Amino acid sequence: MDFQALNASTLGDYLRTLPVITELLGDMADLDIAEVGDGNLNYVYFVSSRANPDKGLVVKQALPYMRLVGEGWPLTRHRSDREAHALRRFGSLCPQHVPALLHFDSAQSLIVMQRLGEHLILRKGLVNGVIYPKLAEHLAGYLARTLFHGSDLYLSADAKKQAVASTTNSELCKITEDLVLTNPFEDHPNNVYNPALPRGTVARLHHNPALRVAAAQMKWAFMNQAETLLHGDLHTGSVMVNQRDTYVIDPEFACYGPMGFDIGLLLANFATAYLSQDWHRAQAGTDPAPYQAWLSEQISQLWRGFSQEFLALWGAHDARSGGGFMGAARDADSLAQFRASFMQHIFSDALGFAGCELIRRTLGLAKVAEIANIPDDAARAVFDMRALSLGEALLLQRHQITDMDQVLRLLRNTRMPPP
Ligand code: ADP
Ligand code: MG
Fold it and tell me: What is the second-level CATH architecture of the domain 33-114?
């Protein structure tokens, strides 16, 4: 069948042609199909059978343009090949944190996956001040396993190079290169920002040579450090949670890149959740401090848990293979030094990418809801400036900062009087 853009009325007939879906849903006579409607790039549908309403699945189709903008922003639909591949790969490494891929039709750019029926987008839960007891532990485990197993620390040199070649995702990487790592740092028509943000603040950032250099270094790292297979868009809108589980969805930006990229994006989004609590809890008439303390603990635990598990995977793999990346004849000191410098390199990259993410979510095209939803421009500008000042500090100090406590201190110290 030639490619066909499906919709809520035509999707049913397509699904009825697939035995695997009939097996999953049971009675296919009467299907409930609804578009979710909050995706940026693609069309996502919830599908269930009226006869078995508790058995549902999710269908995601990529059309040859960006859903949010329409045909004015063309994008090949082959991003869904990248997403299906990454769902398979990450799902095989972390089945407990990745929705199961049930069917993939490359000709229709269509993915059928497990529906997370009792889970909420993490960003929404964080705005509402919900505590998820296993969150940092789960995300740390997901990051350690996915980042380790895509790298030369685990794969043979040949398998790694084949993996780099077969996961090329230039079209979506270009979006990151432009919208995250270039345009927010220049005066560019793609940028959209709060009219109440003092022009002097924006001009100062755009004319700060050290910041421009740091952003260019991060862009270079993103484009050239093919360290591991990344999720590529790991913000809190790509995580679905409940009290028991944590799932990472939407890996269509997956590509080889620096390990610090996924970690940095998550850190930045935890930071905007933290900052915006001052507003959201004030609206609810409650004290933001307890939830901010929990968020700070998540940030610390995320890095601590990630580094412990990553090093454990590394050690176990070296022991099993009787040598590993450094070869068999290394001494314990040089191995320890290499590992420490390796983790510090990931850490400083993570801080640099977190800085880029904070700045692009303030000055660039795409915003984070927890700040963008503050309706009053002047009130929102306070949070915008806090995000910018933290982003700038992380980018500029990424090589000097050695632990997460320093990051948390910077986060707390972004508090400033209203403009
Ligand atoms: P896009 O690539 O267009 O951004 P997403 O993959 O982020 O699309 O999906 C859009 C929305 O659909 C998500 O925010 C979430 O609400 C919902 N969604 C996506 N995948 C699932 C899933 N497996 N189970 C339940 N809901 C999902
Ligand atoms: Mg998405």
Answer: 2-Layer Sandwich (3.30)
Q: Percent of the chain beyond pLDDT 90?
A: 91
Confidence tier at 416 by pLDDT (50, 70, 90) = low
Closest atom of ligand 1 relative to the 114 alpha carbon:
23
25 C-alpha to ligand 2 centroid (Å): 25
The fourth-level CATH superfamily of domain 120-412 is Aminoglycoside phosphotransferase (APH), C-terminal lobe (3.90.1200.10)
Question: Which of these, 358, 355, 365, lies nearest to 217 by C-alpha position?
Answer: 355
CA 60 to CA 80: how far, in whole Å?
9
Q: Where does the pLDDT of residue 216 fall: very low under 50, low under 70, confident under 90, or very high at 90 and above?
A: very high
Give CATH 3.30.200.20 domain extents, the chain. Answer: 33-114
How far away, in angstroms, is 265 Cα from ligand 2 center?
A: 14
CATH 3.90.1200.10 in the chain: give the residue spans: 120-412
The response to whether residue 44 sits with its C-beta less than 6 Å from ligand 1 reads yes
Number of neighbouring beta carbons within 10 Å of residue 419: 13
List pLDDT tens digits, range 69-119.
888 989 999 999 999 999 999 999 999 999 999 999 999 999 999 999 999
Helix axis angle for 260-284 and 377-397, nearest 10°, is: 150
